[in-house]
Amino acid sequence: MGMDLTTAAAPARPGAADEPPAVELRGLTKTFRRAGQPPVQAVRGIDLTVPQGQVVALLGPNGAGKTTTLDVVLGLTEPTGGSARVLGQRPRAAVDAGRVSAVLQSGGLLRDLSVRETVQVIASTFERPRPVDEVIEQAGLSDLAGRKVGKCSGGEQQRLRFALALLPDPDLLVLDEPTAGMDVAARRAFWATMHADADAGRTVIFATHYLEEADAFAERIVMVAGAGSSPTAPPSRSAPARAAARSRPTCRETRPMSYAGCGRSTTSPTCRCRATG
């Protein structure tokens, strides 16, 4: 499994030039090794700079290396080669300082606690957390505050993870497949909140394998694909998506490609990004 990136710049918010990038990856590689098995290169030679204040999508099929890249940004794994800086610091230091939060795909919730109790417990672990009611409201959970986590749907639990991620008021929010399990209305509300956060100065980086989601909600798309892809024809884009687009890249589809190496194999259309006006 390999990883190649083609990026297109999007305008950074005013003042961002005077600040360190939210994320800076240089020659980043990650190889997994197991005894008796050939090494698996999950990430290969990534160079990526994300200014503060952008909403950036990592787009690619399952197994392309998106989650591994985010794990490096979050300090959950060390790169095999290259370097990673987050807000001018080592990733783990930025996380420990409360400047980075994440919404992951699963885990981290106790089924027997209510939504409010869960937020209260996690808030108690931070020195200066945001008010519990404030993050519950921002995540759209006010009507569900008394419900047990085990009684919440998958989308509601994902919104709870979002509320927990907001508690330290981070500068960078990292999301791995954040809208999994959400219906269309919840997905739209979720991304409206994300853009409000970004407009206030928060950087949002999210991984997805849905072209429509990346195209509709990201200011900038970074394509995560296997080696050997070749562009063919541009995909169709709906009028609402075109109207909502800012100065961000669109994508041209390439031939279907197979990805393997992490225990899963998928075949999915991929694309190579190009800048548009």
Automatic annotation (TrEMBL):
Sorted keywords for this record are: Antibiotic resistance, ATP-binding, Nucleotide-binding, Transport
| Coarse class of the protein's main subcellular location | membrane
Chain spans, region Disordered:
1-21, 228-268
Where does the record place the ABC transporter domain?
A: 23-251
Name this polypeptide is given:
ABC transporter domain-containing protein
Biased composition annotated in UniProt, kind: Low complexity = 8-21, 228-248
Membrane topology summary:
Peripheral membrane protein
InterPro entries reported in the protein's UniProt record: AAA+_ATPase, ABC_transporter-like_ATP-bd, ABC_transporter-like_CS, ABC_transporter_ATP-binding, P-loop_NTPase
In which organism is this protein found? Barrientosiimonas endolithica
| Domain of life assignment | Bacteria
Cell division: is it a keyword of this entry? no
Q: Which N-terminal residues, if any, form the signal peptide?
A: none
Q: Where in the cell is it found?
A: Cell membrane
